[in-house]
Automatic annotation (TrEMBL):
An example Gene Ontology molecular-function term: lipid binding
Alphabetical UniProt keywords: Lipid-binding
Organism field: gut metagenome
UniProt xrefs under InterPro entries: DegV (IPR003797), DegV_C (IPR043168), DegV_domain_contain (IPR050270)
Official protein name in the record: DegV
Coiled-coil stretches noted in the UniProt entry, renumbered to this chain: none
Keyword field contains Signal: no
UniProt xrefs under SUPFAM superfamilies: DAK1/DegV-like
């Protein structure tokens, strides 16, 4: 029989709806700011809305959850009878969510919580949660074995992603204006990944999406 363990992820894990609706899964929304207004990601604003804002020239930004939001999730976990939880966050190299959750977890004495820095984001982060959850539910991994199994899963997960335009990286200060202009002019799409420290790193550059 599998142990009663809760699984928590920040909303950047992009968990499928059917996973989010499972009784032992809890989502911690990050904050999305659009035109001076703040929204809870996945609750008050959707990814489609964010993409639309970008296409209209807007520049949505994200920030980590508040301490009260993290504590609210912990309370929900405890109210459902869980005493152990694994909390997945996006890479600590691009967000302070991991450190915030780690500190608050230490203060929550009722909940034994492992806060795991995925060193990734989006679907890769979510894939780690889903794989571990399935193994725990199947009885293949117990609580004591989770840290080692997570490190193994992380080591063998290789996310790659591309972006259609360099415009928003330039607006956020990730690259220079001249580089963005040249890249967009030449229709260059960088292929990105995360290095061993969770830093977004260019892997390759291709022309357009066909390749």
């Amino acid at each position: 029989m599998s142990e009663k363990i809760a699984f928590i992820a920040d909303s950047c894990a992009d968990l499928p709806k059917e996973i989010q609706e499972k009784e032992n899964v809890f989502v911690l929304p990050v904050i999305v700011s659009v035109e001076g207004k703040e929204y809870l990601d996945g609750v008050e604003i959707s990814a489609e809305t964010v993409y639309h804002q970008q296409s209209q020239g807007g520049l949505p930004t994200t920030s980590l959850p508040t301490g009260a939001m993290v504590e609210k999730v912990f309370t929900s976990v405890l109210e459902k009878g869980y005493e152990k939880a694994v909390l997945f966050t996006m890479s600590s190299a691009i967000s302070g969510t991991w450190n915030l959750c780690r500190l608050l977890c230490e203060d929550c004495k009722q909940l034994e919580c492992l806060v795991f820095d995925s060193k990734m984001a989006s679907l890769a982060e979510g894939a780690l949660l889903v794989e571990l959850m399935e193994e725990v539910e199947a009885g293949a991994v117990d609580w004591e074995g989770i840290p080692a199994r997570l490190m193994e899963l992380q080591k063998n997960t290789f996310p790659y992603f591309g972006i259609d335009t360099l415009e928003f990286l330039q607006k956020n200060g990730r690259i220079g204006k001249a580089t963005a202009f040249a890249g967009n002019l030449l229709n260059v799409m960088p292929i990105l990944s995360f290095d061993e420290n969770g830093v977004i790193t260019p892997v390759e550059k291709v022309r357009g999406r066909k390749k």
